[in-house]
Design a protein that fits this description.
Order of helices and strands: EHHHEEEEHEHHHEEEHHHHHHEEHEE
Shape: globular
Structural class: alpha+beta
Helix content: 40-55%
Number of strands: 13
Number of helices: 14
Distance between the termini: 11 Å
CATH topology of the domain at 2-236 and 422-428: Ribosomal Protein S5, domain 2
CATH class of the domain at 2-236 and 422-428: Alpha Beta
Radius of gyration: 22 Å
CATH architecture of the domain at 2-236 and 422-428: 2-Layer Sandwich
Strand content: 15-25%
Largest sheet: 9 strands, mixed
Length: 430
Amino acid sequence: MSSLKAIQKAILAGQGDSTLETLYGTQANRLADEKQRYLKLLERFREAFPEEDEIELFSSPGRTEVGGNHTDHNAGRVLAAAVDLDLLAVAARRKDQVIQVSSEGYPPETLGLDELAPQEKEKFTSPALMRGVGARMKELGFAIGGFDAVITSRVPKGSGLSSSAAFEVLIATILDHFYNQDSLDEVLKAQICQYAENQYFGKPCGLMDQTTCAVGGFVTIDFQDFEHPLVKKVDFDFSKQGYRLVISNTGGSHADLNEDYAAIKNEMQSVARALGGKVLREFSLDQVLQAIPTLRRQAGDRAILRAMHFYQDDQRVVEQVQALEADDMRRFLELVNESGSSSWKLLQNCYTPADIRVQGVTLGLALSQTLLKGSSGACRVHGGGFAGTIQAFVPESLLENYLDKMGSIFGRQACTALQIRSLGATVVRL
């Protein structure tokens, strides 16, 4: 741990520039902006906890899904990546079992770790996530304790970049550093956070978000064994490829889409049940194709199309990883476009049939294809679909035009240009 004044001096003197470049890239304007962000957060900590001086800095990234759209729940494979928008915390260890957190834009939260049972009144709140992380760590034999922290976030809510997973992993990283000497395995840390979200927060999420936030970089996950997923970090330097990843929020509400999301999983699994199993990964695409006459009666045509998407997108993840490892950006982007086309045509999650007049995702993809035509760019639906965000890989030479045109339709604030971040949640040592 270092004194708050020492860290301020290090930032002003440029001693932490190489660390900040690893987290946020090398653009001078961005680095200057991040330095001011760090200094403001340090001042916020001084104001919130004037009695504390020895502190640490922590950063936890957002994440983006890159390949494997709706494949995880049928024991498939996914490809995801950490991004250069993060949750940043200044924290100090306490001598008791109390956590005090002041998140920018929210009322301060105080949580006692003496009571670790789930609290019904806390569901869908940040205290539920903190209590759940602490409870699971203690249950697994790790030490926990109190801390004071101020947090600021650049991971937009509702962007599909998983601000909740970034927060959970941030809390786990702070507890791990202060009380376990950074001994938690990254995948176990992710599983602890998934447990907190499932059992305490009340959201039945998978493991992709937390794993990517914890590991960083490009990460591929194979869910063939749900209890022991295979996690692999992909060695690829996106920053040298001449592209920016752009997330565009095309609007629309997710509030009434639960049935649409559930139907994807249920219809895929209805095909598996008709074949005598539980999930599609138990069977091959050939087995599905041979059984189509029976499956049309038992599961329906859309279920068959969605099953076909599963097998194709699951295999595309394998090929995307191979392309990245071979430094073949062109092939990787071809596969991104194929994934987007499959989600549009087979998975059918670009708009809800409940209101066909509203097709922001489809419109965003059509505009993107027009703007990127003739280049090697790529686009696809991002995350669950039906409303919200799309993802595009845009050549640097086309970036400003793409942002201007998409911004004129959906709002400039709806479009965010990103880089892939190599580090997962970490102590920031300047």
